[in-house]
Design goal:
With 99 residues, this protein is an alpha/beta fold. Helix content is 34%, strand content 22%. It has helices at residues 13-32, 70-83, and strands at 38-40, 46-48, 52-57, 64-65, 89-94, 97-98.
Length: 99
């Protein structure tokens, strides 16, 4: 059985993949919606015209995102606490299965 190679301590390729995925999500929703202003990584991951707020979750090592997940509840808490009331849509976009 082959073991995966060890990662270097300064390897941030997985984090970079997350940023690329975030950009792809911004492009996808941008092409599907008519908007004037796109903001990435300011009030959240992706924001359109201060009306649509998208949080992007991308993980290679996880298979699912459960409703008991601290990451899910942290995202929800941040939406409500910081700016959830001012948006028409709050979208959690993930490549993970939701269990």
């Amino acid at each position: 059985m082959d073991t995966p190679p060890k990662k270097n301590s300064n390897d941030n390729s997985e984090k970079e993949k997350g940023f690329y995925y975030q950009a792809l999500v911004a492009i996808k929703y941008g092409l599907e919606n008519d908007f004037e202003k796109l903001i990435i990584e300011h009030k959240g991951d992706v924001t359109f015209d201060n009306k649509i707020q998208i949080e992007v979750k991308h993980h290679i090592d996880k298979k699912s995102l459960a409703d008991a997940s601290p990451e899910f509840w942290n995202t929800l808490y941040n939406w409500v606490k910081n700016n959830g009331k001012s948006y028409e849509q709050l979208i959690l976009h993930t490549r993970l299965a939701f269990s």
